[in-house]
Amino acid sequence: MVREQVGGRRVKFDSFQIFRQLNLWFFSGRSKGLVWRNYYVLDTILGFSVICYLISGNKWDGNWLSILTNSQMSLAKLDELRQAAKIEVEMRFRKKRAELNTKVEMRVLLILKAYKQRRATLKERTSQSLLRRMARESKYKERVCTAICQKRVAAEKKRLALLETEKIRVRARVLEVRKVARSISHQREIEMMEMKNKLEDRLQRLFSEFHVG
Q1: Which stretches does DSSP call E strand in the chain?
Q2: Three-class DSSP category at 56
Q3: Rounded distance, CA 17 to CA 40, Å?
Q4: 212 conformational bin, left if phi > 0, alpha if psi -120 to 50, beta if neither
Q5: Which of 10, 143, 147, 190 keeps 20 to 30 A from 51, CA to CA?
Q6: CB 12 within 8 A of CB 3
Q7: CA–CA dist 44, 22 (Å, integer)
Q8: What is the pTM of this model?
Q9: Within the chain, which residues score under 70 in pLDDT?
Q10: One of this protein's GO BP terms (predicted)?
């Protein structure tokens, strides 16, 4: 029995009562959450409850051996719970690590897949751009060749037209020259005929004068 002066009153502490309350609390379900959090606290509480019982003055009533046995069993049970919790924590840790590794692998695979898709898309765009460029260059070359051919054809037509015009002009000139030449030749023939006639008339007169004389 312990008495203490608190706030002007003497408070009585019954060690056996404390021991009984601690054991009731420990064996009830209210300590279950604490078991999973801190086993060392429970070790301390259980040991303290045994000490309270031993110093309560009831240590010679014959029940302390059973209390000690129950305490040892509780400690063994507590150790089992600790081991089970440790195993569960390790399993949970391994499971979480495996899940995290799986997530990381999936994330890496998704990143690689997205990278490959981007590479494929970029390659396809580059290929399409190259094809369009080649098509444009081919069309440009075709248009240039067509324009050159058209210019050549037009130049050839123009040259042929000029040649034909020149031929016509030369032919007309030749015809004109021939016409002038024929006219001159005809005029000379006429003049020669006149001269011949004049000479014949003159000779005739001379001959006539000679016979008369």
Answers
A1: 2-6, 9-13
A2: coil
A3: 23
A4: alpha
A5: 10
A6: yes
A7: 11
A8: 0.36
A9: 1-65, 67-68, 71, 211-213
A10: signal transduction
